[in-house]
Amino acid sequence: MEEKLGWSVSDAVDYKGFPADRSKTGGWVRAAQILAIEICERLSTMGIAVNLVVYLTGTMHLPSATSANIVTDFMGTSFLLCLLGGFIADSFLGRYKTIAIFALVQAVGIGILAVSSKLPQMHPPPCKIGTSEICRKANGFQMGILYLSLYLIAVGTGGLKSSVSGFGTDQFDVKDEKEKTQMTYFFNRFMVCISGGALFAVTVLVYIQDEVGRSWGYGICSGVTFLAVFVFLSGTKKYRYKKGSGSPLVQIFQVVVASVKKRKLNMPANISSLYEDFPEGSRIHHSDQFHCLDKAAIIAEGEFENNGSSSPNPWKLCSVTRIEEVKMMIRLLPIWATTIIFWTAYAQMITFSVEQANTMERSIGKFLIPAGSLTGFFIGSILVVLAIYDRLIMPLWKRWKGKPGFTSLQRIAVGLFLTTMGLGAAALCEEKRLSVAKNFDITTKTLPITVFLLIPQFFLVGAGEAFIYIGQLDFFITQSPKGMKTMSTGLFLTTIALGFFVSSFLVSIVKKVTGTQGWLANNINQGRLDFFYWLLTALSLINFGAYLLCAMWFKPNNTESDLEMDTAVNGSSVEDKC
């Protein structure tokens, strides 16, 4: 017989710190208010990033490769700072305050960008067409203001992004069957919402930037972010808040330090003699991997008496469950490392692919499609694939395998494979474009080749993101310890950051090895961007093989009831296997 739940949510409090009333707090309305922040963050970040390379080359007069690196460094920093945001949320502010403060920081940064793009003194004078005069690049002051605005946006994004999904799931009680069912759809709706925001950004906002004015486009981004903060704050009295357990980084360091201090001690013959202070029902079983960390649980002589307390010094003695939680995080790292390359491929879709589009025929009648809006096909493919997966693949898979959809590891595998195909399609498209470009003068701005040839690369990489993003989010949340979910979300987001940084690194290396007029020439009609795409295709294929090995090596969690994970996307099992 189903146990009757009380009026309060056992592990959540209201804004006054009292037990949260399940009838008056949380639920889908509050989750939607939280999602509003994420929608506006994606709208603003994508609205700026996808068209920024055009602004840097066309208005700030920077070289093509330099512009691409500025964009990828900006995006990489935004996601890398998610780790800092997660640390601040876990250790000091909590998720609610972290989201509110850093969303305001982001809005201010976008506002500065809007103002600087409007003022003539904030960018160099336009190039004089038909003269021999060299275009003047942006000076140090102008670039300084640009960097200030971009990195304020990056700080804001990093601060709020690591806490939004976690605070959203806090609004549902997994012990209530009705709310548990509601939460099974949260991540899919989360993905649909942010994809919808991104689609609006790369179509409407990019059009406004190109045809009305960049200051208007950026100003709208800043305005809607301030509005989203207001909507978010209006739910303050209705949210459910969960108390943090402190920074998991401290726990990780404690286990490492204790194991190093006891590295010369011999392991006991009986594992049950290792220190454990967790109740029986919430323990994590001892695993056979990373034995060196187990020494942190060896009880040395006088360990309890020396500190005059019934609890040992956690920097000298750690429980088996604490050690196993650290092992769980370590087991995530191979999967983490092999998903970085996808985001390197993603970076090309908002940099070099936009530059490709800028040289191609983009007219439909009298309407000229903005180059940055071609990424709308990228976003559209995500929404199409999510719909097909939800309405077609999931029911068929459940009927065939008896499971509600692919596991998280299987989703990631599908995404990596589709991305490899997308990079190959990008290389073939560029070969075609260059074959046309060689028949025209270097000053030709628009080549007689349709921009719709870029659709396959956008569609395949976009479909890859639909599988990888949700697969990663599901994997890192369900396979991490209960008290480390914010950190694991930040860890997932660092794959995006490192993907952008790897892109910048590869661009710099290729630029240095092949020369100024090599693969990545300032004018892409004179370069061999197709060779760069083939290089990424080869790296992606090698990475796909490495991922399959890591997925087979991965061992799912062996936990007790304490690790009843937040419900995964579409109800995926904790015991993901490839």
UniProtKB/TrEMBL annotation:
<dbReference type="InterPro" id="IPR018456">
    <property type="entry name" value="PTR2_symporter_CS"/>
</dbReference>
<protein>
    <recommendedName>
        <fullName>Major facilitator superfamily (MFS) profile domain-containing protein</fullName>
    </recommendedName>
</protein>
<keyword id="KW-1133">Transmembrane helix</keyword>
<feature type="transmembrane region" description="Helical">
    <location>
        <begin position="215"/>
        <end position="233"/>
    </location>
</feature>
<dbReference type="GO" id="GO:0016020">
    <property type="term" value="C:membrane"/>
</dbReference>
<feature type="transmembrane region" description="Helical">
    <location>
        <begin position="448"/>
        <end position="470"/>
    </location>
</feature>
<keyword id="KW-0812">Transmembrane</keyword>
<dbReference type="Pfam" id="PF00854">
    <property type="entry name" value="PTR2"/>
</dbReference>
<dbReference type="InterPro" id="IPR000109">
    <property type="entry name" value="POT_fam"/>
</dbReference>
<dbReference type="GO" id="GO:0022857">
    <property type="term" value="F:transmembrane transporter activity"/>
</dbReference>
<feature type="transmembrane region" description="Helical">
    <location>
        <begin position="491"/>
        <end position="511"/>
    </location>
</feature>
<feature type="transmembrane region" description="Helical">
    <location>
        <begin position="531"/>
        <end position="554"/>
    </location>
</feature>
<dbReference type="InterPro" id="IPR036259">
    <property type="entry name" value="MFS_trans_sf"/>
</dbReference>
<comment type="similarity">
    <text>Belongs to the major facilitator superfamily. Proton-dependent oligopeptide transporter (POT/PTR) (TC 2.A.17) family.</text>
</comment>
<dbReference type="GO" id="GO:0006857">
    <property type="term" value="P:oligopeptide transport"/>
</dbReference>
<feature type="transmembrane region" description="Helical">
    <location>
        <begin position="145"/>
        <end position="164"/>
    </location>
</feature>
<feature type="transmembrane region" description="Helical">
    <location>
        <begin position="99"/>
        <end position="116"/>
    </location>
</feature>
<feature type="transmembrane region" description="Helical">
    <location>
        <begin position="74"/>
        <end position="92"/>
    </location>
</feature>
<feature type="transmembrane region" description="Helical">
    <location>
        <begin position="185"/>
        <end position="209"/>
    </location>
</feature>
<feature type="transmembrane region" description="Helical">
    <location>
        <begin position="367"/>
        <end position="389"/>
    </location>
</feature>
<keyword id="KW-0472">Membrane</keyword>
<feature type="transmembrane region" description="Helical">
    <location>
        <begin position="329"/>
        <end position="347"/>
    </location>
</feature>
